[in-house]
Amino acid sequence: MVDEKDIIAILNESERPISLTKIAKKVKAKRKDIEPILDSMEKNGKLKAVKLGGGKAYKLNTPNFEVYSKEIKDLQDRVRKLEERFLSSDRVSTREFDDAYARIRDSLGYAPLEKIRLEVGLTKEEFYSKFRRHIEERYDLIAGGEEGYVRRGSLYGIIKRRDEK
Predict the structure, then answer these.
(1) Which of 64, 79, 100, 154 has its C-alpha lying 20 to 30 A from 106's C-alpha?
(2) Model confidence over 29-65: pLDDT tens digits?
(3) Which SS3 state, helix, strand or coil, does residue 29 take?
(4) What's the CA dihedral at 44, 46, 50, 54 to 10 degrees?
């Protein structure tokens, strides 16, 4: 005698719908013996009947993961936007960067980015991502230093303010 557990085990083997004929072959029973079991399982919400070709196929009635994945992506986007808004609420401004540069630079105007970062009090990731544009627009990058930006295999960790014309 075929029971629901046998049918569920067969349907778990594939994520695609399985035809009534294949289910009958796998449980070694006749279609007319299996159809009432499948119908009752469908009424209980355990199975979902799908039209396949000229006949019926069945698959387990699992939650729609496409809907869930879309909701998860929407939530991730909202969290990302909130995170960007939170991080952009300038904990440290470009003015503080310029002030730290003025304190740290030597008599020729050179200052290592590492010392500026420590003076400002940010992590490497925060500092270099936040001030990248500011540094590239207003300062010349010079090869050397302990940390900085890598360009074409060279480490640029010293800066000098450009002459503004």
Answers:
(1) 154
(2) 888 888 888 888 888 888 888 888 888 888 887 766 6
(3) coil
(4) -80
